[in-house]
Predict the structure.
Amino acid sequence: MPVIDVVDLSKAFGTKVVLAKVNLQVEEGESLVVLGGSGSGKTVLLRTIMGLLTPDSGQVSIEGKIIAELNREELSNIRKSIGMCFQMAALFDSMTVFENVAFALRRHTKMTEAEVAARVDECLSMVGMKDTDKLKPAELSGGMKRRVGFARAIALKPKILLFDEPTTGLDPVMTDVIGRIILDLKQELGVTSITITHDLKSAFMIADRIALLFQGECLACETPEVFKVNPNPVIQQFLRGDAEGPFLQDPPAPKRKAKEASA
Amino acid sequence: MVLDFFDKVGTGVLKGVDTTGDFAVLAGRTFVAIFARPFDGKNLLRQFQAVGVNSLPVVLLTSLAVSMVFAVQLAFGFKQFQAEGLASQVEGLAVMRELAPVITGLMLAGRVGSAMAAELGTMQVTEQIDALECLATDPIHYLFVPRLLASMLMVPLLTLISVYIGFWGGYLILVGVEGQSAVVFSSEFYKLLAFRDLRIALYKALVFGMIIALVGCWKGYRTQGGAEGVGNAPTSSVVTSSLWILVSDFFLTKLLLV
């Protein structure tokens, strides 16, 4: 039985269909990377898996439990086993780094303050953020915030990790650092994970399987090697990063070339 | 044309019902969540400070100013028919029953309710409230409950302080300026008051505290649309809670004076 089972999931906002009968299964310990253009429904998919959004039709199951059918307490228990890393980290800005990472430990465990401090230190070390515990989120760079967000997500030792565009807006070096941290977390913790990203380099680094969302549908979900040679023109255009092709319905005309041709 | 009119009226009615229902559900969930665990004492103490201690200066100054102005008006009015002695009695009645709870409520709606709306609004648009949910924490329990409890306790306490300051505001004008006897003023101020009047003031303050916290949190929690939404939330919170305070004051007065 897959740990995460997305079956015929559909979600629309008004008349805009964001997800249309998406099917995805993630096995225990597997790392799935979901690719897709902006507005293709990747974040909506993650938010539906976390139970932050309710599907219009279809369902999401975590370890056999259908998320939309759980009451608040059951959902809360499921969430304790999932770590969610937000695109912009979503750290609590009124708290220090330490308090952010310790938040779930203090609320959901009976650990003493010394045990909490040791666990926070361990989590911050895993993401290379040791000795930043007294800083406030406003004092951190974008990459540091993401890493503290990772530390907060892993504090309760979750079985599942969800990463929402963890490298967006970061420089190439920090993108690589984040990719390595995700890979390390996967290997050290043995978690099942879904990572949403635009970054192909880190996608191929961390993925056991890669899926591509296009116009609300899942075009492919296969190993990186197979994905690379998938003949689908949308996938090939996405991998090449070309403006020309079926990926964009109305790409802006290349003005410079047009001017040169007319001259 | 006619259909358009009915369409607009219908849409407005549906929106109104939807908004009222949303507020009622969140308010109900907040009262239920009061008894949920874990109990976060530190968070509650922070709110006691934000709602109560930090509001002291503004409540002191406004209570003093309003009670002084009211005493000036009373002294002038009663002087017209040589009944200056009644001014201190009416001052006492007005301060206890109306001025202290309403002024405290309105000032806290502006100072505390708007801050709650802005804080929760910012948390909403920066996904911090979603992060709370993902960390298996009910935002209603973590954010609404301490603010509601702090307001329900602190607004009545501040109202009592406002009554005390109101006494000295009246004293400054009626004794200091109008030349009434200090002993007479001190006994006359409380002459028309009964325990029922203190109870009315505290009941009103309790209800105003609930309005301030619930409206402030609700407006912040439902913030949408980035910076513009965060900017609108406090304004909307202050207008809504001030309106509700004044309207509920009328109904509470009618109800409690029976």
Chain B has a mean pLDDT of 93.
